[in-house]
UniProtKB/TrEMBL annotation:
Organism: Granulicella rosea
Family: Belongs to the ABC transporter superfamily. Macrolide exporter (TC 3.A.1.122) family.
Protein name according to UniProt: Putative ABC transport system ATP-binding protein
Assigned keywords, A-Z: ATP-binding, Nucleotide-binding, Transport
Transmembrane stretches, start-end: none
UniProt GO molecular function: ATP binding; ATP hydrolysis activity; transmembrane transporter activity
Record InterPro entries: AAA+_ATPase, ABC_transporter-like_ATP-bd, ABC_transporter-like_CS, ABC_transpr_LolD-like, MacB-like_ATP-bd, P-loop_NTPase
Gene3D superfamilies: P-loop containing nucleotide triphosphate hydrolases
CDD domains reported in the protein's UniProt record: ABC_MJ0796_LolCDE_FtsE (cd03255)
Amino acid sequence: MSESLNPNLQPEIVRNESGEHIVLSTDNLEPLHTPVVNAPIIQVRLLMKTYRTGEVDVHALNGIDLDVPRGQFLAIVGTSGSGKSTLFNILGGLAPPTSGTVKINGRDLAMMNSTERTDLRKRTVGFVFQKYNLLPTLTARQNIQIVRDIAGRPLDFDDQFKEVLEMLGIARRMDHKPRALSGGEQQRVAIARAIVNGPAILLADEPTGNLDTKNSDIVLTLLRDLNKRLGQTILMITHNPEAAAYADRTIQMRDGKIVG
Ligand SMILES: Nc1ncnc2c1ncn2[C@@H]1O[C@H](COP(=O)(O)OP(=O)(O)OP(=O)(O)O)[C@@H](O)[C@H]1O
């Protein structure tokens, strides 16, 4: 197992000397918001994904090259069917490419065994989806805690996570089940769940797709705060140019390629 996946070196949300919460990265145990001039945290080369449906090949990704520097907030826009979700799934280790390479933290996904890929999904990458995907029978607190329990690192909410919950504006909603929360609150619980293991990368697929303008603004502002204050690298898929405006950089996809 590589150093970056050593459980003793996994990213943590900790306090610095000024009492601020910061994220420590896996590979150098430096705060992620300290500029790191070496390799991009995500490096994609000549990525192809072809789906075969009957006799027809669909080239969902058609030669993607992409570098994402550590700590960047990147928006991925593009028309329906342009390959955004396919790219998202491959970057998160949820699906294999047909060819090409993806390196996360300098490690080639294709060279990882299934345990290492599971570790990647549990510790290095956090996911936020359009439909929140909270477990309906659990409270907000339990929805967040379960992720830490699975990783074998039970969470002390008060000590370790309270300020993050305050920042997300959901500290007083922790004992409610999802049905008692608004869509915006559910998405903020989903964001808390996605970052509770201190992942270096947050992948968000249409995180505001089900929200009204007011709640969209709240969620997007929070993502930007996470990026600026905690140094989280964020990749966000969106159809909405106003949402993309919250990011540092926007790439546009068309027909499985990056076109701008
Ligand atoms: N499992 C699959 N089998 C066959 N074709 C697929 C599969 N998944 C995606 N595709 C095709 O691959 C192409 C890219 O799809 P993808 O879902 O990545 O696009 P997208 O940009 O995320 O679209 P949307 O914005 O509508 O979610 C589309 O033509 C789609 O029909």
